[in-house]
Specification:
D-Amino Acid Oxidase, Chain A, domain 2; FAD/NAD(P)-binding domain; 8-stranded mixed β-sheet; binds glycine; alpha/beta
Length: 341
């Protein structure tokens, strides 16, 4: 085998293609070339602790492994492409507004500690020393030193740059001949029959004075969840809603919900400009873990990353490219497409 077709040019498909090139293979990526993918909305959280879900132990292990691979992945891609990806390892903070929110956050912290994730609980005074713009109403929080961020739009631009003419703009209605990796996000369902469904998310982008926020903030706000991802240029990404819907409507209510949560935590954000509202759909499976593995002699799939596409990019790229050249990593076992047979 010397040539592989990758169907899907989102952050997963492009990264798999990039790693296949490193294995000495020639690659064609088939993609619309547009910005339909979930990566376009994604805030870029690399959040093995912040995105912990109860009862998802194998996924948690994969998330941790991928987070460990992010610094080298970012450095290598950034150097090869000559692009700044805005990879930032400053860390994140969990912030709870009310006593009930703090109780909810503490339950999660206890679970995370059991999973060997680093969580450093902080009283409000120490939390505000880390993030001075937080509301004085905040009841408590924690520092998550191993939760980072990157700018997914920059990552995709860098991958497109290093892959160059290998990325072709073409809609794919059926599987091409020869060795194929399907990393087509929601399109994976139609191409393979796997149960990948859309989970709608609205994300806002605000812009204001740089430095108002210093860390990624995971907010627990009157029973609602919000995250704030500040970039060095003054952009703050606010996310995200989560609905079992396939439409692209930006509803007034969902914008209100995100902005109310964001400004309850950081009142100064009310002065920021609202520059973008964007809806995309997380490609999700029945157990909300990705499908990674072989579906046939010439067919490998990497899809269904749900809330963790950006975080899981490096490990997915390494494991799937390895699988194509015949290396079966034991980490793949829990994510086999066969579990939905
Ligand atoms: N990773 C955050 C989200 O999917 O909203």
């Amino acid at each position: 085998m010397s040539h592989v077709t990758v169907v899907g040019g989102g952050i997963i498909g492009l990264s798999v293609a990039w790693r296949l090139v490193h294995h000495g293979l020639s690659v064609t990526v088939l993609d619309s070339g547009g910005d339909e993918g979930a990566w376009y909305a994604a805030a870029g959280m690399i959040a093995p602790a912040g995105e912990t879900a109860f009862g998802q132990e194998p996924l948690q292990e994969l998330m941790l492994e991928s987070a460990r691979r992010w610094p080298a992945f970012a450095a290598e891609l950034s150097q090869e492409a000559g692009h700044d990806l805005r990879f930032d390892a400053t860390g994140a903070v969990d912030v709870a507004l009310t006593g009930d929110d703090l109780a909810e956050a503490r339950r999660l912290w206890a679970y995370r500690e059991l999973r060997d994730l680093k969580v450093q609980p902080l009283p409000p005074s120490e939390l505000r020393a880390l993030e001075p713009a937080l509301s004085p109403r905040v009841r408590g929080g924690a520092f998550l030193p191993d939760d980072w961020q990157v700018d997914p739009r920059r990552v995709v631009a860098a991958l497109r740059a290093v892959l160059g003419a290998a990325v072709t703009s073409r809609r794919v209605a059926s599987l091409p001949e020869g060795p194929v990796v399907v990393a087509a996000g929601l399109g994976t369902a139609e191409l393979t029959g796997l149960p990948v469904r859309p989970v709608k998310g609205l994300v806002l982008r605000l812009r204001g004075e740089p430095g108002v926020l210093r860390h990624v903030v995971n907010g627990y706000v009157d029973g609602r969840h919000v995250y704030l991802v500040p970039r060095s240029d003054g952009e703050v990404v606010v996310g995200a809603t989560q609905e079992e819907r396939a439409d692209f409507t930006v509803t007034a209510g969902s914008v209100l919900e995100l902005l109310r949560s964001a400004t309850d935590l950081v009142p100064e954000l009310a002065e920021f400009e609202l520059t973008e509202t964007v809806v995309r759909h997380r490609p999700s499976t029945p157990d909300n873990a990705p499908v990674l593995g072989r579906l046939g002699p010439d067919l490998v799939v990497a899809a269904g990353h749900h809330r963790n596409g950006v975080l899981l990019t490096p490990v997915t790229a390494d494991l799937i490219a390895g699988l194509v050249v015949g290396r079966v990593d034991p980490l793949l076992a829990a994510f086999s497409p066969g579990r939905f047979a």
